[in-house]
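Exam revision sheet. Question 4 asks you to relate a sequence to its structure. Input first:
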Amino acid sequence: MKIKEYLSKMKGGAKSPPGVGLTELLWSWLGSAIGIGICGYISSEYFEPRDLTLIIGSFGASAVLVYGAVKSPLAQPRNLLGGHVISGLVGVAAYQLFGETIWLAAAIGVSLAIVAMLLTATLHPPGGATALIAVIGGEKIHNLGFLYALVPAGAGATVLLIIALIVNNLSRNRKYPEYWF
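Answer key, structure tokens:
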């Protein structure tokens, strides 16, 4: 491939998606406020006093998908739950094997999490962050070991899913999920 051809691929060509209406904005806001709020509340009241957590940064990106892009294949329950749990397992393993060299553990954790999600048909982009957090999350996260894949990754994703099922189906114009498996 010639350089000009290669560079021309970078200019795109598809039309930008249309904007969303006020109703869609409100439902997306309501779902994400409740979902993240409940994770944060449960975390601060019940999990953190026991040296656990129920909220991690990757849930912010999951909220974008499950409340703002409800039809996306990446937002469906299989992807939300599987993506976080599988990536959590991979991230912890990467830290345990290569944690002496954080940049290497991070690279291996994220890249293998992507491969694992693709192989299991659970691709959920925030899962990459879940794997990365397992590596760079600090002593509190590292002390969880493989429990990290269940709490906070799996349990927090389950809370987001329950709220998505409730809120996204209150609107006449929304249906969630599109499919389960």
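Marking note for examiners. The mean pLDDT is 96.
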